[in-house]
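INFO batch 0412 | record 1 of 1 | parsing
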Amino acid sequence: MSEDITRLNTALQGRYAIERQLGEGGMAIVYLARDLRHDRKVALKVLKAEVAAAVGADRFLAEIKTTAALTHPNILPLHDSGEVEGLVFYVMPYIEGESLRERLDREGQLPVDEAVRITIEVADALQAAHEQGIVHRDIKPANILLSRGRPLVADFGIALAVSSADAGRLTATGISLGTPHYMSPEQATAEPVQGPATDVYSLGCVLYELLVGEPPHTGASAQAILGKIIQSGPVSAREQRVAVPPNVDATIHKALQRLPADRFRSAREFAQALRDPNFRASEESREASRASSRDGRVWKSLAVGGLVMTSLLLVLAGRAWFGSPEGESRPVIRGALEPPVEARVLPDAGFQVSPDGQTLAFIAAGADGARSVWIQPLDALEARPLEGTRGAYFPFWSPDGEALGFFAGGRLKRIPSSGGAATVLASVSNPKGGAWSPDGRIVFTPGYRTGLFEVSSEGGEARPLTRLDESAGELSHRWPQFLPDGSGLLFLVQTDEYGAVDDRSRIESLDANAERHVIVRANSAPTYAPRGGLLYWRDGAIYASDFEPRKRQVSGPPRLIAEGVGFNSSEWPNVSASAEGTLVYHMGGAVPWRLEWRDRSGKLLSVAADEGDFEQPELSPDASRVSYREGQSTLWSLDLARGTRTRLTFSEADHYSPTWSPGGRWIAYSADKSAEPGTRIYRRPSTGVGDEEVLFDAGERTVSDLSWSRDGRWIAFSMAGDVHLLDAESKQVRPGVSTPGADYLPSISPDGRWMAFTSNESGRSEVYVVAVGEPTERWVVSQQGGFLPRWSHRGDELFFFDLTYELQVAAVTFDPGPEFGVPQGLFRIAGPLTGHSFDVAPDGRILLRTHAAAGNAQNFKMILNWVALQDQP
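INFO prediction complete | emitting tokens
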């Protein structure tokens, strides 16, 4: 238990018992507590010391009492407030649900009807407060809680109390009231009078985001956002999402007027307009807004002009190369791109050079840990984040370079490369790449084990393009790339065929008649450039082979292009090349992995191990050791107290999914061995001393995702798209679970009665639970996508990641069957994840495999005119 919680429990003894920290905002730290007098759970918020000092405890408590009189079904009431030992606190009900912010992060957008209903109910709550002279001044998705779908507006008290503080003292602490994305223009310019119209504006911003997926004004910094709010006029949600009714669009338009007098006179009028299908904004108002937007664009271009001048010399140098005539001989130029100082590059999450070879799109995590697409012109000094791409990975360009496709939050999306609103095109579960055709189609792999699908770049129904030949051992069709002439595409066929490491998968082509042709055997996504040939990864290097697209065949020996190139475990090499001859790659081991101990809030407690692969980590039953996979093949055990490592496997083979027996005596794992063709499940002493014992021979099928039950009887594993159960003593295998989709990543509960697993049968990955050995009924635990389940030590909680890489936890009760609470978000990581990436210790600590947080160890390497390398000796 932390020192802060111990101090609070001592100070509040007899009144409240603090259980754990729930979160932290700019003003207060939130704890889950039990009200001892009334035997109920509450959310106890402790004002931060600097805020309490700026506001004054007496003033805060006097002002916050006025909110106790607020009674409305959509307002979270105030239970209690006070000061003990210098700690200023206030108490509200604990809501078993989530905030609107959390739901937006998970789903991206809400159904129109639900977004309107939530907004109307919030407007009704604001009207009730305004009638008592109370203005919230900080309406945003994070302050709107959802309890069984009903919105509850929180933190009226803190908004009123803090706003009454002396402005000079508050500013001196660096504290500001309001969140930039939802601030009204009068808040952005610090106008002294901020009445109900301020809340109306902020609620209009919230409704816009519920419908479109991002706030109406976004930017790379708070200053940029505030500048847009001050300079720009209202925006149209209907232009971004055609399903938005005209009256709803008109309501948002009026609510977002720059002048308070031009908005609705009350929150009640705001709600009435949403209920009225005939409501329209006046044409005069819309024309004024368009003029305002034009003025804003002029202001923006003038502001950016200064930045352009500072990099003029660099731009001219770039043009000397990129702008040279096509027939002119150009040298091979090698260089490097410095990563952004304020973000961490995630090469495994994808990057791609634009078709003209002049711009790189890549994924990086910002200061808050959230991923987004960054744009780097190769003739400029700095990269910039692309607004509207939060949570993105695996970006790909349109043929004209005017737009980008990417995946985020369980969706395939597109966005203008110059910036703008993102458009949802299709649902995905565990995507493995996309490509944009010259005729406006997007081909993508939506799941872990699927064929290719296609959808129009304008949206519509996604249709299957290829189907897996399971009889031939095909596991996945992934990483498509269109040929420049539009005659077909290349893609990787991942198989479970036995063979050497570099020929288990193959690159194939698909022509306009849906005929497939094998091009070359390689465990690598294909990259093709005219004059350069077919690029693919092997043994840490990139090679090129001559390739004739119409003949669908390679010729001649492969040529070495670059060494030390990184490689994603999903068989995507860290390389991208354009048609005209720009190649960008990222070195292997650029951002080392490590094992971290974290608490439930995501706070780093300590580093368990540093500088390694640490794939598929699993704690021993007593959490004293952790097993893991290193170097793509070898299994190890790490003593967490002493820091010593023990090698568990020694044969030349691929080893996977180490899992501990209940007492920690054995380690079970699967392996492919060249001396013994086929995949088997083995066990051996966890000391690493002693012979292996074969528990199951899977033949040519691939076995992975092992999980040993606490009672020692069952080892659950994935094979051929289903989950199976191996009796560890009799060595007999029986079905575990089989759905119409791909089932994988099983985890058996501590009592051995229940099994959690991941399946994409619904069209995206979700976490389910079934009874072990009797899968007659299954329960879905995740609400908006999930994968990688892990049970708590006592089996009363189930942890998993959602599709935005936020760690979730759901409470579990068994009486007699399982019942699951609403999943609660704990913390988000940058992702993407590969296989098992975390485990939960008996004391509740979370062991997480993640990248070291400090900086970028290496930058992108660039080769201009790489195709000329084939002419060099």
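INFO post-check: DSSP finds 15 helices and 60 strands in the chain.
INFO record closed
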